[in-house]
Every structure is written in structure tokens, then in C-alpha cells.
Write a structure and sequence with these properties.
Blueprint (H helix, E strand, L loop, with lengths): L2 H14 L6 H12 L5 H19 L1 H15 L6 H30 L3 H21 L11 H12 L8 H11 L4 H30 L5 H28 L3 H18 L1
Helix pairs in contact: 1-2, 1-3, 1-10, 3-9, 3-10, 4-5, 5-7, 5-9, 6-8, 6-11, 7-8, 8-9
Length: about 260
């Protein structure tokens, strides 16, 4: 990969990782449009690390609270708000972790296709718009229970399919459960942290086992760009979803899906 390709793809990853428009879909489409070779495992690891750093920095107080909750659980206290939230995040992570372990290779080989991305972008985009339009806004993040976490976690597992969007599908599930927009997004982002960490770790092990030559300077550049852009993207999204909702992102998904299908005809 050239430096220009790394910069462009890292920016795309940073913008799309936390917007409900599918980062995996865009990382398939951009190389497809420009006829670039696949970015490879090393790049995936670096941008995942950058994205993880961004969400941890932006939600640093929440992350600190989750770590405190984890320590309380280890100490036998599962009744505090911090420990209950930590349990919810752990439970919500399990479905995606299991699905990734069992299905990631098959999905990587069979579903990284522009046509699949067009259908998932449009289908889930419509569901997202309807959930945001008609879902109630009666609940806050403090009311998240284990059942809620499991349902949202199962939705997160669907995001393995390119074009779905991890943030999009989890926020949609949270809105269907009656969570207020901002808190639905906040829980979605917190739930993404362990999944991104697991994905980066898994791909890192794959990279080491494959024996590929690692250009650490390029990886560092990709991680830094992805982190900065993702941090700005999270802030932008939290402002938009609070004031406007998810409609602009649903419209973008439908327009992009239409463009992809037109190009494939």
C-alpha cells in the first residue's frame, strides 16, 4: 500500500467506524472503486487500535467507571450501578465474540461483495429510520438491564456482515427497546470497545502467524489518523443524533446503496 492509500483508508475508517453507515462496507467499496489491492491484516489491526483509542478517550469517564465496576465484580459486589453496567457490557459482548469466532472467516470469504453491501445498507437503513422515528424515548442508560444488553449484543453480532454497521444496528436495537437517542448511542459506543479490542487482538495474532513483514511506521500513521478522525466523528455524531436523530444517516445509506446497485447493473 502507498502512503496515500493508507491515509485515505484510515480517514474512511475513522469517519465510518462510529457513524451508522458501516465502516466495513466502506473499506470494501473504496478499494473496489479505485481498483486497489486489499489493505491486509496489518492495516486492519492498526485502524482498529486507532478506533479503540478514540472511543476510550472520548468516553474516558465511562470507561473508568466500567473498570471500577469490573473491580467491584471481582470483589463480589454486583449491586452497584458500575458493576451492573460492567456486567451488561460483558454480556452484550458475548454474542458478537462467538459469532466472530465461528463465522468471521466464512463471512470474509463470501460476503465482502458490493451487492451484499447495497442490500444491507438499504435494508438496515430503513429499519434504523423506522426505529428512530417510532421508538419511544423513555429510558436512560442507567436502566440498561442484562436482557437489554443481550438483545443489543445479539444485534451487534449481525454487524459482522459488511454494510450492516455495528453502531447502526446496536443503536437501532436500543431505540426499539425505548432508549433515548443519546443514551442509545452512548451504550452502543461503550459496547463497541471490547469487540474492537477482541477483533484487533484476533487479527494481530493472525498477522503474527502469517509471518507477513510489518511496516510499523505505516501502521502507526494509520492508527493515529484513524484515532483523530474517529474521535472527531464520535463528537459529530453525538451532536447530530441528539438534535436531529438518525434520519440523515438512513438517507445516506439508501443513496449509497442505490449508487452501488446502479454501478453494478
Amino acid at each position: 500500500m502507498t502512503t496515500l492509500q493508507i491515509i485515505i483508508l484510515a480517514i474512511v475508517q475513522g469517519i465510518t467506524e462510529f457513524l451508522p453507515i458501516s465502516s466495513s462496507g466502506h473499506l470494501v467499496l473504496v478499494p473496489f472503486l479505485f481498483d486497489w489491492v486489499d489493505q491486509g491484516l496489518a492495516f486492519d489491526v492498526s485502524v482498529h487500535v486507532g478506533s479503540l483509542a478514540a472511543v476510550c478517550i472520548f468516553f474516558r469517564r465511562d470507561i473508568a467507571s466500567l473498570l471500577s465496576g469490573g473491580a467491584q465484580i471481582l470483589g463480589g459486589n454486583i449491586k452497584t450501578p458500575e458493576s451492573r453496567m460492567a456486567l451488561a457490557i460483558v454480556l452484550g459482548t458475548i454474542p458478537a465474540a462467538m459469532a466472530g469466532l465461528l463465522l468471521a472467516s466464512w463471512i470474509e470469504s463470501n460476503l465482502r461483495d458490493p451487492a451484499v453491501i447495497a442490500y444491507t445498507l438499504s435494508g438496515y437503513g430503513i429499519v434504523m429510520a423506522l426505529a428512530d422515528r417510532f421508538g419511544s424515548r423513555e429510558r436512560s442508560i442507567s436502566t440498561v438491564g442484562l436482557k437489554d444488553a443481550l438483545i443489543i449484543g445479539c444485534a451487534q453480532a449481525l454487524a459482522l456482515v459488511p454494510g450492516t454497521s455495528r453502531s447502526g444496528i446496536t443503536i437501532t436495537a436500543a431505540r426499539l427497546l425505548g432508549f433515548e437517542r443519546q443514551d442509545a448511542a452512548r451504550f452502543s459506543f461503550l459496547l463497541s470497545a471490547p469487540v474492537i479490542l477482541l477483533a484487533a487482538g484476533y487479527k494481530f495474532v493472525q498477522m503474527l502467524m502469517s509471518g507477513v513483514t510489518v511496516a510499523w511506521g505505516q501502521l502507526g500513521l494509520a492508527a493515529l489518523i484513524a484515532c483523530i478522525v474517529a474521535y472527531l466523528s464520535i463528537g459529530f455524531f453525538m451532536r447530530v443524533v441528539t438534535r436531529v436523530g438518525l434520519a440523515p444517516f438512513a438517507i445516506y445509506r439508501l443513496l449509497l446503496a442505490a449508487c452501488i446497485l446502479y454501478a453494478l447493473i
